[in-house]
Amino acid sequence: MKLHTTITGEGSSIVLLHGFPQTHLMWRHVAPQLAQNHTVICPDLRGYGASDKPATGYDKRTMAQDVIDLADELGIEKFALIGHDRGVHVAFRAALDHPDRISHLGLLDSVPAFDTWNVLHGREAKVAFHLYLLAQESGLPEQLVTNSSDAFFGHFLDVWSNNPFPDDIRAEYLEAARNSIPSIIEDFRALATIDVEHDREDLDKGRKLTMPVAVMQQDWGTQLGFDPTELWRKWTTDLRFTTTKAGHFMAEESPDDVVEFIQDLVAPVEGSSSATGPTQPTGLAAERGC
Question: Is the pTM of this model over 0.70?
Answer without folding.
Answer: yes
